[in-house]
Specification:
Blueprint lengths: L5 E4 L5 H9 L9 E3 L2 E4 L13 E4 L11 H10 L5 H14 L15 H14 L4 E5 L7 H16 L4 E5 L1
Parallel strand pairs: 1-6, 4-5, 5-6
Antiparallel strand pairs: 2-3
Length: about 170
């Protein structure tokens, strides 16, 4: 897939909205949106790329389901990929470990710190091994240590030639 790019959006209004338009959760007022040469609007946003491109997104507003543990939240999108139990567990535990979350993996979101919830969203994206990553303010609201963990992951995605990274920061 020819999706190689690193884009960083700064300042003003519209960063989060642009991500939502690309993701297909909001509709633009007019115009056409293309990702990797493929028209996604008018259309279903990046959801139209499912099956063609592995995608992951983490929005600033969260997205963890309150009735599932952090481990179950990270595993949920992987269950739709038909992975074996061992591969699913390896990817979930690996992503939780990378973000320092194994110790709280069996807690539900309400029992986690705000920073752990944000890291949980990143762990879910990481476990998907995405080719296209959409992130909304992934470093906001972290102390220095948590910010460094998140920044390390974001930099790894940015350096990966098989990954397109779009950040609203």
């Amino acid at each position: 897939h020819d999706l190689r790019a690193v884009v960083r959006l700064h300042g003003g209004r519209g960063k989060s909205r642009l991500l939502k338009v690309i993701a297909g959760t909001e509709r633009p007022a007019c115009g056409t949106v293309r990702v990797g040469g493929r028209q996604i609007w008018p259309g279903d946003g990046v959801l139209s790329l499912i099956g063609q491109v592995r995608l992951g997104f983490a929005f600033a507003s969260g997205g963890l389901l309150s009735n599932l543990s952090l481990r179950e939240n990270v595993a949920l999108p992987l269950r739709f990929l038909g992975l074996s139990g061992a591969d699913l567990a390896r990817r979930v535990d690996g992503s939780l470990e990378r973000l320092g979350l194994l110790g709280v993996a069996d807690l539900r979101p309400h029992a986690l710190s705000a920073s752990a919830r944000k890291h949980g969203n990143l762990a879910r994206v990481l476990a998907l091994e995405p080719e296209l990553v959409l992130l909304d303010d992934p470093l906001e609201g972290h102390d220095a240590a948590d910010r460094a963990l998140a920044l390390d992951l974001v930099q790894a995605w940015a350096a990966d030639p098989a990954c397109t990274l779009l950040i609203a920061a």
